[in-house]
Design a protein that fits this description.
Layout: E1 2-5, E2 18-20, H1 23-30, E3 36-38, H2 41-49, H3 51-72, E4 76-80, H4 95-104, E5 114-115, E6 125-132, E7 138-146, H5 148-201
């Protein structure tokens, strides 16, 4: 069946595109949900009159996509899953899990746009998830898959590093204060001499 998309559909097309789909897909989903309309002269004329507005939307989507790509490229996701001592996963990492983690960071992304090579993620480690954005734009998000033991170890390490940093800063502050004391004492000792100078001049 020939239809005109009323909104963007992942892996099918964008708003205003004329596409051919199976009759069942059109009748059971696209048409009832308002996602598309049947292609005919009246609907074609309607979309032609909306061409400028649709193109403006595309310009805005490209800008949003570029901005999101820049942010996503700097994201590191951490997902904790059950795993054995060797690091082999008991379950699998899914796009639903990745979507949930992205949502926690403020990214609202459709699950269909998240590509996770679940067949390849069988061990804890660092992987790459592809997030498909607008048109051919996509982002490669770093994914760290870890076991509960690794997560706790990472937390302990971070706490120890923070403690060491705080102690180093405190020590540096003490040393700076100690170094400043003799200077302050010298300045205090010179003050009376400076006050007596006018009396000597009389």
């Amino acid at each position: 069946m020939k239809i005109i998309l009323n909104q963007d559909v992942v892996h099918l097309g964008e708003e205003g595109d004329v596409v051919e789909v199976k009759d069942g897909y059109a009748r059971n989903y696209l048409l009832p949900t308002g996602t598309a309309v049947i292609y005919n002269k009246a609907n074609a004329a309607l979309f032609k009159s909306r061409a400028a507005a649709i193109e403006q939307k595309k310009v805005e989507k490209r800008a949003q996509s570029a901005s999101m790509k820049e942010k996503l490229d700097n994201v590191v996701l951490y997902i904790t899953v059950p795993a054995g001592e060797s690091g082999k996963l008991f379950g699998s990492v899914t796009s639903v899990m990745v979507q949930a983690e992205l949502q926690k960071l403020g990214f609202e992304i459709e699950r269909k746009k998240i590509e996770v090579a679940t067949h390849a993620i069988k061990m804890t480690g660092t992987y790459t998830v592809i997030v498909h954005l607008y048109e051919n734009e996509s982002s490669h998000v770093k994914l760290v898959v870890q076991s509960e033991a690794e997560r706790l170890a990472a937390i302990r390490k971070a706490e120890e590093e923070a403690k060491a940093k705080a102690e180093a800063e405190a020590k540096a502050a003490e040393e700076a204060a100690a170094a400043a004391e003799p200077v302050a004492e010298e300045a205090a000792a010179e003050e009376p001499a400076a006050e007596e100078a006018p009396a000597d001049q009389q």
